[in-house]
Specification:
The structure is a single chain. The protein has 198 residues and is an alpha/beta fold. It has one domain: Nucleotidyltransferase, domain 5 (2-Layer Sandwich), CATH 3.30.420. It is 39% helix and 19% strand. It contains eight helices and six strands. It has a six-stranded mixed β-sheet, sandwiched between helices. It is globular. It starts with 8 loop residues before the first strand and ends with a strand. The model has no long low-confidence stretch (mean pLDDT 93).
Length: 198
């Protein structure tokens, strides 16, 4: 298997109507960037009509309004397009358990078969690399790795995906300096590889 720095990744982020897909919350935006050798080579970004009015709190956090999502494609269609976009690449997200809970629920609801992607979590990477740091949220990591970041654009899926892709490569370089250069090595560290492709 090629080195972690040479692997192609799809770094993604979801915006949702709430925090828990088991309570009926659903996806309202999927944003992703495909990165190879540290460069963005492709993008995916679609808004989704959830079929309900968005909670005021979600509008405030995401700046996504009812007018923006009304008439857009439904969750099932967009998730299918996203799956096609990802192909065989490795998925990456920050606090990936949250995003995975919504993706896996979509697989269950529609149904889309077995969820079979390798998934890396940059939150787990950060906690491994900097165990004595108190904060590991996206804003903290942007500051720590000196990535240019506009806080007022935070919580839009496309922008957060791009930002996460930049910190991903900073982390991969630090892992390489510790002798961790392959996916199999990374998979031995708890809470970084959340799912492994069969």
């Amino acid at each position: 298997m090629e080195s972690l720095l040479k692997t192609t990744y799809v770094v993604f982020d979801l915006e949702t109507t709430g925090l828990n897909p088991k309570e009926g919350n659903s996806i309202i935006e999927i944003g992703a960037v495909r990165v190879k050798d540290g460069e963005i080579v492709d993008r995916f970004d679609e808004l989704i009509d959830p079929g309900i009015d968005l909670p005021d709190e979600i509008i405030k956090i995401t700046n996504i309004t009812n007018e923006m999502v009304r008439g857009k494609a439904k969750e099932e269609e967009v998730v299918k397009r996203f799956i096609s976009f990802v192909g065989d690449d490795i998925l990456v997200a920050h606090n990936a358990n949250f995003d995975l809970s919504f993706l896996k629920m979509a697989y269950f609801k529609y149904p889309l078969g077995a969820f079979n992607f390798s998934v890396l979590d940059t939150l787990g990477m950060s906690r491994y690399l900097e165990p004595f740091e108190r904060y590991h949220n996206l804003t903290a990591l942007m500051n720590r790795y000196q990535v240019k970041w506009e806080e007022d654009k935070h919580h839009r899926a496309d922008y957060d995906s791009e930002g996460t892709s930049l910190i991903l490569y900073e982390m991969l370089r630090r892992l390489e300096r510790r002798g961790i250069t392959s996916f199999d090595q990374l998979a031995k560290i708890p809470k970084i590889v959340l799912n492994k492709r069969v």
